[in-house]
């Protein structure tokens, strides 16, 4: 007993070590996979944002290039461009024409604004106040036309933007650099309007290096840079160029707001930089879930399975070892029963090893690398339950065989209520019963989980027949799922393919094939009757189970 306890303790120690190592490896792999998925999603989002920004710069360049020798004081400069601007289908808030006017052109520009129907055609300051004496003698950048025209935007026409805190420096930089320039984030159209940016592009007449005016497009930051899929692994934030430690984010409703960075807030996972309007914008990505915590949970699940299997193996080993010790004592006490007891022990070891080998194969194939743990857990429990069911049936019959129809009980395989059985009442051997139980479970568990081609769950017909006599007979089995197709039926797993195509046919010494018809999925198995109904195995089991006299 001391030696047995030492061996069981050693097995437990090895099992715990292997379970811990497996959990460690799964943690590292899951963490690496999660980080790769996060980085890939960030790269895709940053690429889409950059593509969106490039399209809007292209629209500004094209719009500026369509101007032909502009008369700067005209208030309908965007009229011939409206069709071209809207053809791009971009989500701008407002497009405008900003004319660079000399003091002598103020009166004509005001008259042109009045002719265009604007309610306040006077040339005035950006804050809607009259021009002071100093401004009347300087060149001013005046908003002369805009799109769309409504009750809010019409009040902007005629305003000089030179002294605007945001638009003044942006226009000056666009004029100096001769290319589209983006402003700092600013409220659009009103003081409490949505945060956005204004892209200003200089309009250069042919043969001139001096801008006659500027075309501008304003965009909301939410749709421009912060738009994101609700199912993504991260949320997006824009580093606020106006504040050293600030950022701009969009909430679940799409509302954009500026906030200060929180010292103990969520840590940024990845930073990406995009270019727009002659400047770089920094996008920060916050993961929505703790990848390390998720990896730890998966590792704990795998470790738990390993410990459970270790307990099962140690228990089985202890049981078998204890049975061997007990049988050994019986042999010592009853020398006359030595041969019978030896045969019983050999048979028990043989069957336990077979069961352990099958369980090991099931676990290894189900918990393969990269598998979904929730699906793997359900399949593992179902397959072991199918094995447990057939072992229970065999135990009730003292391992002399199982009625074939008994393998289709609802507690053993899913969708049993949708299976129509057609075939004679036959009793299959213990070896065949174990293979067929796993085969039926695999077929049933991969039948259509949703609706079929006709809007109903598919009906399943399990048909078998015996051809010929007992000596040279043949067992034919056909599984057919009606009203299903290759598109609606869930594909067989790796373990299922191996079981259906190789393990089950080889265990019965037969052949199998599976295919789709126009209205069904079919699996056919053909095997010699002598392997399905093994009289030699039944006779040996019956002899071992016969009471000793």
Automatic annotation (TrEMBL):
Catalytic reactions of this protein: ATP + protein L-histidine = ADP + protein N-phospho-L-histidine
Keyword field contains Membrane: yes
Keyword vocabulary terms for this entry: ATP-binding, Kinase, Membrane, Nucleotide-binding, Phosphoprotein, Transferase, Transmembrane, Transmembrane helix
Enzyme Commission (EC) number: 2.7.13.3
SMART domains according to UniProt: CHASE (SM01079), HWE_HK (SM00911)
Segments passing through the bilayer: 299-325
GO molecular function term, any single one: kinase activity
Domain CHASE, residue spans: 142-225
One Pfam assignment: HWE_HK
Protein name: histidine kinase
Source organism per UniProt: Tardiphaga alba
């Amino acid at each position: 007993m001391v030696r047995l306890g030492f061996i069981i303790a050693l097995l437990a120690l090895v099992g715990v070590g292997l379970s811990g190592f497996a959990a460690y490896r799964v943690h590292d792999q899951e963490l690496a996979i999660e980080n790769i998925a996060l980085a890939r999603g960030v790269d895709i989002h940053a690429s889409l944002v950059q593509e969106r920004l490039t399209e809007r710069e292209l629209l500004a360049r094209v719009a500026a290039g369509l101007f032909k020798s502009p008369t700067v004081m005209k208030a309908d400069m965007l009229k011939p461009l409206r069709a071209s601007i809207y053809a791009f289908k971009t989500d701008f808030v407002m497009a405008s024409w900003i004319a660079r006017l000399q003091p002598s052109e103020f009166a004509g520009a005001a008259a042109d604004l009045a002719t265009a129907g604007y309610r306040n055609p006077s040339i005035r300051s950006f804050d809607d106040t009259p021009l002071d004496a100093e401004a009347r003698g300087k060149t001013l950048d005046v908003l002369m036309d805009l799109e769309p025209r409504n009750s809010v935007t019409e009040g902007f026409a005629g305003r000089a933007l030179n002294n605007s805190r945001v638009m003044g420096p942006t226009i000056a930089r666009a004029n100096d650099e001769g290319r589209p320039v983006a402003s700092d984030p600013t409220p659009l159209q009103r003081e409490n309007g949505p945060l956005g940016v204004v892209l200003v592009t200089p309009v250069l007449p042919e043969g001139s290096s001096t801008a006659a005016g500027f075309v501008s497009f304003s965009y909301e930051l939410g749709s421009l840079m912060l738009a994101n899929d609700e199912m993504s692994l991260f949320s997006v934030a824009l580093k606020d160029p106006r504040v050293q430690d600030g950022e701009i984010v969009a909430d679940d409703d799409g509302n954009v707001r500026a906030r200060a960075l929180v010292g103990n807030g969520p840590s940024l996972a990845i930073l990406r930089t995009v270019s727009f309007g002659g400047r770089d914008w920094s996008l920060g990505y916050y993961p929505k879930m703790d990848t390390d915590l998720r990896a730890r949970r998966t590792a704990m699940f795998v470790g738990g399975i390993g410990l459970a299997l270790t307990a099962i193996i140690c228990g089985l080993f202890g049981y078998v070892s204890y049975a061997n010790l007990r049988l050994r004592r019986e042999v010592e006490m009853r020398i006359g029963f030595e041969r019978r007891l030896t045969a019983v022990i050999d048979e028990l070891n043989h069957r336990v090893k077979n069961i352990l080998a099958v369980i090991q194969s099931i676990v290894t194939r189900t918990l393969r690398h990269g598998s979904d743990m929730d699906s793997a857990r359900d399949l593992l429990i179902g397959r072991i339950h199918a094995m447990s069911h057939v072992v229970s049936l065999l135990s009730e019959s003292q391992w002399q065989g199982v009625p074939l129809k008994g393998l289709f009980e609802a507690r053993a395989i899913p969708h049993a209520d949708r299976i129509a059985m057609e075939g004679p009442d036959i009793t299959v051997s213990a070896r065949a019963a174990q293979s067929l139980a796993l085969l039926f479970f695999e077929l049933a568990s991969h039948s259509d989980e949703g609706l079929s081609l006709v809007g109903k769950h598919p009906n399943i017909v399990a048909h078998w027949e015996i051809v010929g006599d007992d000596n040279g007979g043949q067992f034919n089995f056909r599984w057919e799922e009606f009203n299903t197709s290759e598109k609606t039926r869930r594909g067989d797993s790796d373990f299922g393919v191996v079981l259906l195509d190789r393990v089950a046919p080889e265990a019965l010494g037969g052949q199998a094939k599976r295919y789709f018809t126009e209205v069904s999925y079919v699996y056919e198995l053909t095997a010699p009757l002598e392997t399905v109904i093994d009289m030699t195995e039944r006779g040996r089991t019956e002899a071992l189970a016969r009471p000793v006299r």
